[in-house]
Amino acid sequence: MIYMTRTGRRVATLVAVAATGLALNGMATASAAVAYPNPGRVTGSTGAHDPSVVKTPTGTYLLVHTGNNLSIKTSTDRIAWRNAGTVWPNGAPWTTAYTGGAANLWAPDISRHNGQYYLYYSASTFGSQRSAIFLATSPTGAAGSWTHRGLVIESSSSVNYNAIDPNLAVDANGLWWLTFGSFWSGIKLIRLDPATGLRSTLDTAVRALATRPSSVSGSVEAPVIHRRGGFYYLFTSFDFCCRGADSTYRVMVGRSASITGPYVDRNGVALTAGGGTEVLASHGSVHGPGHPAVLPDVDADVLFYHYYTDTGAARLGINLLAWDPTAWPYAY
User: Which residues form the signal peptide (predicted)?
Assistant: First the structure.
């Protein structure tokens, strides 16, 4: 979601996948998909950028996305969405050293653990490596209920990564991890202390998960790790965001038996060598779908993302994910 460079628009790759008989927001899928699906039906407040979603114990969906002081939306059915205020109604002054004084905060990641909502988010400016990831917690997730818990990690020209686009992942052993990154040397992973949600003081390694060494721009960002079966799936975005209908973002995936990697794509190419299997790309009036979030739900694993319309407006995209016989995901 950072660093804009002019590129040509990518044409969506056609794919063929088997039917699963699941439904998207109550609508049955076709017997086979021959192209990337359009987003499922969403209504109400549908403008969003870098969405992240958690489901509350009462069944309500709570979505946080990039915006001034971090915007909140809610839905009871995953279709109709309404605005629900901001995380920081009174501002977040601890972030302004990284935002140049602006209130716009990026790429939140919301999840629920130990009866609390955890929110990781980033503060930066476009094209800058002067970035930071912060943590907030809340008992309810409601606007104004959040407590600032501190800085998790920051970046500058003294390191080879960019501290934006955080995602909390808990492994099969209960260990907490934060993946993040954009451009420069790609996607990274650090250990967290589950007692605080902040960076571990016992394991301070910064591990490399994905990079695009042959790409002039190094354009891989917006990571999210989803654990399913015996694999950890690392979803990322390749190419360029934030250019309206000219955006070329696309959702990619690789997997590993270990949360720390190595991750490989369907063809066995390491993600640290530029590998990645495409899950969703531009097609028709859907431009630059990316910044994925994956939420396991009662009907399926749900893929949330943003995309741009023909007019350049950012919109919330929702599709379901199914898994082929070799345990690779596809959107429908």
Answer: 1-32
The answer to whether residue 1 is domain-embedded is: no
Q: Does an H or E element contain 98, and which?
A: helix 96-99
- CATH number where 70 lies: 2.115.10.20
The dihedral formed by the CA atoms of 230, 234, 235 and 239, expressed in degrees to the nearest 10: -150
Question: Does pLDDT of 165 surpass 60?
Answer: yes
Q: What is the pLDDT of residues 243-301, one digit of tens each?
A: 999 999 999 999 999 999 999 999 999 999 999 999 999 999 999 999 999 999 999 99
Q: In this structure, is residue 67 part of a structural domain? A: yes
> Would you give the end-to-end CA distance of the chain in angstroms?
24
- Give the integer Cα–Cα distance in Å for 107 and 65: 6
**Residue 148 forms part of a structural domain:** yes
Rounded CA separation 57/162 (Å): 34
CA–CA dist 26, 79 (Å, integer):
10
Dist. CA 111–CA 183, nearest whole Å: 25
Is 280 within the bounds of a domain?
yes
Distance (Å, whole) CA 308 – CA 243: 9
Do 123 and 165 contact (CB within 8 A), yes or no?
Answer: no
- 221 annotated active-site: yes
- Residues of the chain with pLDDT > 70, as a percent, come to 89
Q: Which tokens is 301 given? A: 């694993």
pLDDT at 207: 98
Q: pLDDT class for 216, splitting at 50, 70, 90?
A: low
Instruction: Please indicate whether residue 203 is annotated as part of the active site.
Output: no
Specify binding-site residues.
50, 127, 162-165, 182-184
* Whole-angstrom distance, CA of residue 47 vs CA of residue 38: 16
Cis previous bond, 262, omega within 30: yes
Its domain, for residue 259, covers: 17-331
Query: Binding-site residues for substrate, please?
Result: 50, 127, 162-165, 182-184
Catalytic residue, from 77, 203, 221, 299: name it: 221
Residue 21 confidence (pLDDT): 31
Please report, as a single letter, which amino acid is at residue 272.
T
